[in-house]
Write a structure and sequence with these properties.
single chain, about 160 residues, mainly alpha, two-stranded antiparallel sheet, two-stranded parallel ribbon, 8 helices, 4 strands, about 50% helix, globular, GUCD1, Guanylyl cyclase
């Protein structure tokens, strides 16, 4: 990633890491910003760490904060919702009891965040604030609710295929 500040080029070398599963996009983002030593430690103990952190195959943004904390990465989280997104969780699982269990786990993680020295703020960052962070502090992980994303190109291609 390259940015320019006062005519000076600032480059953060963040290696790309391929997702291993359909559920680990956020975890993969964490891997990209870890030191080589911590990355190796995490990859060698991947399953155990996921189990110890309690998220298994259902990670939420707050889980990533706990992972960052585990590896001593200073961070803060901005969110518009300090609670589980039941709609998104329901899409991840057809099992209502599992959805309820995950929602309870996420709620507890938010409740105990400050006790665990994890900084979570209500609100959103402006593009200006985000760029300022990247320039002055380093990489930022920006996650978006997949349910809010749409691809205009994909829609166009789908319509084209449907009319053939």
């Amino acid at each position: 990633m390259t940015t320019e500040r006062n005519g000076v080029l600032i480059q953060h070398n963040v290696p790309h890491i391929q997702q291993r599963y359909n559920w680990d996009c956020g975890v993969t983002c964490i891997l990209m910003i870890l030191s080589e030593e911590d990355k190796t430690k995490f990859l060698n103990n991947f399953t155990n760490i996921c189990q110890e952190e309690g998220f298994g195959h259902t990670t939420c943004t707050v889980d990533l904060c706990y992972l960052l904390k585990r590896f001593d990465i200073e961070h803060c989280m901005y969110t518009t919702r300090q609670s589980p997104n039941i709609r998104s969780l329901s899409n991840l699982s057809n099992n209502t009891s599992n959805t309820d269990k995950v929602a309870t786990r996420i709620s507890k993680r938010f409740i105990y965040a400050s006790v665990n020295d994890i900084k979570i703020f209500d609100g959103v960052l402006s593009v200006k604030d985000l760029v300022s962070h990247i320039v002055h502090k380093g990489p930022a992980i920006v996650l978006v609710d997949a349910g809010l994303l749409s691809c205009d190109l994909c829609k166009h291609n789908k319509l084209t295929v449907e009319f053939r």
